[in-house]
From TrEMBL, chain A:
Full protein name: Dolichyl-diphosphooligosaccharide--protein glycosyltransferase subunit DAD1
Subunit structure: Component of the oligosaccharyltransferase (OST) complex.
Domain of life: Eukaryota
Pfam families per the UniProt record, alphabetical: DAD (PF02109)
Cell compartments where the protein resides: Endoplasmic reticulum membrane
InterPro entries according to UniProt: DAD/Ost2
The family this protein is said to belong to: Belongs to the DAD/OST2 family.
Organism of origin: Digitaria exilis
Keywords on record: Apoptosis, Endoplasmic reticulum, Membrane, Transmembrane, Transmembrane helix
Transmembrane parts of this sequence: 31-49, 55-75, 95-113
Listed pathway(s): Protein modification; protein glycosylation
Membrane-protein topology: Multi-pass membrane protein
From TrEMBL, chain B:
Keyword vocabulary terms for this entry: Endoplasmic reticulum, Glycoprotein, Glycosyltransferase, Magnesium, Manganese, Membrane, Metal-binding, Transferase, Transmembrane, Transmembrane helix
Swiss-Prot/TrEMBL catalytic activity: a di-trans,poly-cis-dolichyl diphosphooligosaccharide + L-asparaginyl-[protein] = N(4)-(oligosaccharide-(1->4)-N-acetyl-beta-D-glucosaminyl-(1->4)-N-acetyl-beta-D-glucosaminyl)-L-asparaginyl-[protein] + a di-trans,poly-cis-dolichyl diphosphate + H(+)
EC number(s) reported in the record: 2.4.99.18
Pfam families according to UniProt: STT3, STT3-PglB_core
Origin superkingdom: Eukaryota
Cofactor: Mn(2+); Mg(2+)
Topology term for the membrane: Multi-pass membrane protein
Region described as Disordered: spans on this chain: 446-494, 743-770
Residue ranges constituting the STT3/PglB/AglB core domain according to the UniProt record: 570-629
Species per Swiss-Prot/TrEMBL record: Digitaria exilis
Name of the protein in question: dolichyl-diphosphooligosaccharide--protein glycotransferase
Function: Catalytic subunit of the oligosaccharyl transferase (OST) complex that catalyzes the initial transfer of a defined glycan (Glc(3)Man(9)GlcNAc(2) in eukaryotes) from the lipid carrier dolichol-pyrophosphate to an asparagine residue within an Asn-X-Ser/Thr consensus motif in nascent polypeptide chains, the first step in protein N-glycosylation. N-glycosylation occurs cotranslationally and the complex associates with the Sec61 complex at the channel-forming translocon complex that mediates protein translocation across the endoplasmic reticulum (ER).
Amino acid sequence: MPRATSDAKLLIQSLTKAYAATPTNLKIIDLYVICAVATALMQVAYMGLVGSFPFNSFLSGVLSCIGTAVLAVCLRIQVNKDNKEFKDLPPERAFADFILCNLVLHLVIMNFLG
Amino acid sequence: MAEPQSSRTTSGGDGRLRNALGGVLCAFSLLLIGVLAFSIRLFSVIKYESVIHEFDPYFNYRVTQFLSKNGIYEFWNWFDDRTWYPLGRVIGGTVYPGLTLTAGTIWWLLNSLNIPLSVETVCVFTAPIFSANASWATYLLTKETKGSGAGLMAAAILAMVPSYISRSVAGSYDNEAVAIFALVFTFYLYVKTLNTGSLFYATLNALSYFYMVCSWGGYTFIINLIPMHVLLCIVTGRYSSRLYIAYAPLIVLGTLLAALVPVVGFNAVMTSEHFASFLVFLILHVVALVYYIKGLLTPRLFKVAMTFVVTVGLALCFAVAAILIALVASSPTKGWSGRSLSLLDPTYASKYIPIIASVSEHQPPTWPSYFMDINVLAFLVPAGIISCFLPLSDASSFLVLYLVTSVYFSGVMVRLMLVLAPAVCILSGIALSEAFGVLTRSMKFQRPTSDDGSSTAGDGSPNIPANSKAVSKEKSSKKNRKKGKDSEGSSSVDPRTEEKLLVLPCGPSAVGIMLLIILSGFYVVHCVWAAAEAYSAPSIVLTSRSHDGLHVFDDFREAYGWLRHNTDADDKVASWWDYGYQTTAMANRTVIVDNNTWNNTHIATIGTAMASPEKAAWEILNSLDVKYVLVVFGGVIGYSSDDINKFLWMVRIGGGVFPHIKESDYLRDGNYRVDAHGTPTMLNSLMYKLCYYRFVETDGKGFDRVRRYEIGKKHFKLTHFEEVFTTHHWMVRIYKLKPQKNRVRGKLKLKSSSKTSSMRKTSGKKSPWQ
């Protein structure tokens, strides 16, 4: 048991150390993702409280949060300098694609919100 | 080794010119393939006329007419009260709008450019145009996988494959006409995103998936195939960040877009057809997280993390899975819709949903129909599968998975051979292109004027046929560079295979090329024959050749025309559901049931009415406000898809809802007969009477040309119906319900006239209709 806890502590320590080494722009994207997912969870909790009557509103709300989180993860993958596959993709192009996809997503959300 | 590099540096202009020439040739071939795909489908227009075929296209045509006349808001909110009387049908919420919106847009665009094409012309020619688009989409998909040579081959094969022609001839204005294009295009964008990892293509992929959801109920195939492929990639260790970019945005955006279409609505998140996509979405996120953490930690610490997580995570997973399974298993169909269940379990429909089982295109195909529909491709496909494995990439594994699943589904329902068609075309295109490449390459290397065997020229020579020029150019130059770089046989098997193939002597490879060309020739001949003879019949006009020339049977349109001109606008017409769409579209009268078959009880009511004796049938039809009854009868000319042959299905469907109709009452010793040995229930049923009324007057003996015997009851009168119209060849017969008489004799029991009434009762007939 103590070995397990010491292992766990070592694990958490190395995780935080490795994560602290990531560049700031990636950390900002990670923060955005966590915010979006938290918003989605809050919406689900609210739905649990008041019921799901306008189901399309609930669906569009939750899926817009999840959608923008997923797109932000894709952006992070493309902008990450450690990623060999995307080394000749300029980050501006990645950001432009991210904006475009978000536009389409939110257009659909607006339509479906009801 | 030196040549390809030199061609790049010193004669760069030469290489560029050759590339440009290759590009122009490719574009020109694609144009010709498009023209071929369009024109091979025009046989029915040439042989008959520019008319809409079959049954379902008439409904789509009527909806498109409404759309073009009233605009999109009216169409979206349309409640149709001229069908399924008295229930009506919500068109906006139950139709897949893709096809009608596409044709409506084309019509509106052409009309705004002052090209005055009628809606019917646009509808008739929509399918050939979109089949040309589908072959271009096939070219793109195969090019992403194996190169442009294979792409051109696959596109040419798809342009002609009979299975696709059967559902997209000019006049077959049905959902599949645009849906196959949307299917292949969505797959192309998915593979492109997988290969490039670009979020832009992922967005386009989601939009193309939206178009597919709008067009056809078969979109569930896409939303289950792509997760299956992602799972396959994860399991075989081919996870990459491009896979995440290809899949995750598609699911989120795609689910939202699918929920936008009213037909799908909330089914996009609540039915089992979509659960696989959500499950794989979760699995993908877990795998992505694992890979990310693996990148952060050292291997030893990663192992520790794994053991820690696995114990906790597995427990959580089991809990969630148990809840989900309990939820899904509580519904009787496990969350699947009836149609999907009948695909997964081929025996389901015949046990539980007789309507689905009765449609002839839902039957399993026979072996000859495979050869008829995909011909030579049936044995080119295994070669294509092998070629996909050398080398195996994400895209080629996707193609193999697509083929395997579509082969299973085509074996369940003959209608789904259409989904198999692009898969076999792509794989046989790959196989043929590889074969041509190998044979021409070995021919080229055996030529006495070429240099020593090891330094093989990279660029194309004029001997190689145009459609394998690009692929042999790319492939041989790549392989030579590889051979030059490593000294001995490298890890890939290609240089060794190439050395083996180079040994193919010149003669056999020339013979091989000739044989392949002859094989393709047989394929082309078969395709053109199938398009001309087998699949171009419009079903609404029949022809037959006899010793005195060509007979044309235009009885259906004659009957609908008669209905249109000789009945009131609000009269209701009852017939079997096959003819509902045609009646509303061409005769413009309200019908009771039509091909949508969404209400089984209503159809069973009509079936019961057809199977009951005259009085009971009159009661049932009168309760539905029916004025006219229409039956199709083929006994005079030998048309075998008439209502007497479909009658047992009416009995079965009616008996499924009304237990007093028993199928065994209509069969004599298990055989279905309408001759002198037919059961009394059969010979007294409304269907028998309406079909064979006055039939004995045609030839004096009542010989039915379809059943090939003389009928049982020859001379009888109709008591509750009167015949108003029979078409020229007796194919369609229309009857009117006789109204109730004002005064009913023999039913009142007045004391004063009891004697006279009792006398009347015993002397005359009791029926109030005489």
